[in-house]
Design a protein that fits this description.
With 455 residues, the chain is mostly helical. Among the domains are: 174 residues, no CATH class; 72 residues, no CATH class. A two-stranded antiparallel ribbon has the order 1-2. A two-stranded antiparallel sheet has the order 3-4. Helix 1 packs parallel to helix 3, helix 7 packs across helix 9 and helix 22 runs antiparallel to helix 23. It is globular. The two termini are 25 Å apart. The relative contact order is 0.11.
Length: 455
Amino acid sequence: MITSIEKKVLLAHLMRRAGFGSNYNQLEELSNFEYDEVVDQLLNPEFGSLEDQDLLDRYFIASVEARTARHADPQWTWRLAKSHKQLEEKISLFWHGLLAVGGVKLDHGLAMLAEIDLFRKYGLSNFGTLLLKISKDPGMMYWLDNQNSHKDAPNENYGRELLELFSMGIDENGEGAYTEEDVKSAARAFTGWASKPTPPPFFLGPFDMEFNFDESDHDNTEKTFLGNKGNFNGEDIVEMVAMHKATADFICKRLYLYFVSEEINDEEVIKLSDIYMKNQGEIKKVLEYMFKSDHFKSEEIRFKKVKSPSDLVFGITRLVDKYEIPNLDSAELAVNTLLMGQFLLNPPSVEGWHEGEEWIDSGSLIERINYATSEISNKNAKGVKDIVDIVLQKNITNSDEILNNCLESLGYLEITENTKKIIQEHIEKNKFNSEEEKILDILKLIVSTPDFQYC
């Protein structure tokens, strides 16, 4: 039987990984439920129309007819910062990086938002369904040049990336469970799949992109794919790919890297892959097993994953809780992730982003620290006021107690003993005009540490 504090520490870990984190008061509320109940709540968001869409359209006027990714991003970043369905947004971010479409080439912000909504709707469901939906996504077809793929001259871009980067993957030697002939057959199967031409956006604004299948331009002959022969089309290819063991291994490895650890545990990935195959590719079942496993709950994987720019920005944003309605400041949230190396709605290539330690260099680290310290010292933010009040209500008679209470109030954070010692020495050597000033100073120090770059 775990203690109340241990339960909150475990829930805090879950919310950092399955979402962007929860503040002290939210964790108090979540602790009224059993851990498995919280996992079930996260895994079962009710998809539907976004309740505050009218509000966003009113404040983010340029996003209503979003012509570019930059015009569109305030709509999504508001959800990343405010949505109560945290896993729905987190899994959308995962698929956005894996089934990557670059918004700058696409140059159609509304299409990018439609794609994120597709990830919300299908991101926790069956991978085969999701893969088919993204294969019919007009933005994806345009991004990977499938409108230039014809039955007499197939373009291999989509067929190749579908196998190499979206599903089956390759090993360290550049080899996969498929052959070059399989790539060619996949390309032939997807001929005739394209995005409809859209009218120019001036002066009526952008028109929605639409998928189009041109049967007259489809290769309707026999193909050999993964050892099977038949007159395959794109749907057949997706069905075979989605339930291939190599796909189960690849997708589960990527989910493990994203939600659990940057150091692969082969045994755990095998377990996840087995769950995938037994449940016909249901992502929700894989994540349910993952989040409820003893491995995920173990102390050795906590605070070992480098925060992505989105983890850091939206984690801090949720913590300080300064936005009640959309405003110019909230419209610029994506600028902060961009300065840290993550241009939301515009992955750098079809590979998505290289994550882990590659997120951090000297320039991005400065941006991370500046953003975090600026936000956590904003005394006008509701969340900051709450943190200060929570700490003041606790025992703060010595440096060790006040530091531990600050860490707890930030969502049960952990830092190394060496970092604790440095902050404690700072507290003891300096004089402060008030307890509030001392607390704010400690909070700034905590979010400036190397430890804070991990979740």
